[in-house]
Amino acid sequence: MNLVLGFLLYVTIDFLILSVPIFHKVDISFLDNLFISTSVISTTGLVTINIFESYNFFGQLIIMLLFQLGGIGYMTLTTYYLLFTTNKITHWHQKLIGVEFTLPKAIKINDFLKSVIVFTLIMEVLGSVCFFIAFVNEGMEIYKAIWYIIFHSVSSFCTAGFSLFDNSFVGYQDNVFINWIISVLAISGSLGFIVFTDLWYRITKKSTKLTFTSKIVISGFIILLAL
């Protein structure tokens, strides 16, 4: 119940912020703002209006930050903040994180939270570098590319599906490099933080074998991808 109420709270706050006219390029209806707010937090990628043409830079920045929040999980960021500032988390937060991710017993919550943040930053920075090379090679101005690479790297990794282009990435359908960047980021993000935390445990010798959860996720992913 707490997770549901938290989700509704973030959607409401997002809606109220995006409804402020100073973040708009054109008039946006009540329903469109509400739809975009819900879609952003739940990272569905569904839109009823053109993001680039409807919201200015600050509106787009808010949207990006919120699908980053939705991609990582708001309880993850909240709990990590508490851990970072107080060096401890309450039993209540531990219980909620366990419910949100259904963590295997072999994975410690503190290590899990740190690995989520670090892995997210590493992948999104690498994605941004690759996007920058790709967009500049496609003739995009550098000043424009800087914002586009960040937005689309975060969107791809969080599998948010949001784009600043009018036709999404249809214009780059023949660009193999860009297709690979999006695919690798999306796959990395969708496999889940539990799997990567578990793999890190294995690499750093903190555990001798993968958890049952990771084995199921990886096996299922390989089979479905092959099919």
By DSSP (H or I, 4+ residues per run), the number of helices equals: 11
Number of strands: 0
Low-confidence stretches: 78-86
Radius of gyration: 19 Å
Q: What is the first-to-last residue Cα distance?
A: 37 Å
Question: How does this model look, in words?
Answer:
This protein is mostly helical. It has a domain at 105-227. The protein contains eleven helices and no strands. α5 crosses α7. It is globular.
Short structural summary:
The protein has a domain of 123 residues. The chain is 70% helix and 0% strand.
Strand and helix map with partners:
Layout: H1 2-18, H2 30-41, H3 51-54, H4 57-72, H5 74-86, H6 91-101, H7 109-137, H8 142-157, H9 176-191, H10 193-203, H11 212-226
Helix pairs in contact: 1-2, 2-4, 4-8, 5-7, 7-8, 7-9, 7-10, 10-11
Name the features.
single chain, 227 residues, 70% helix
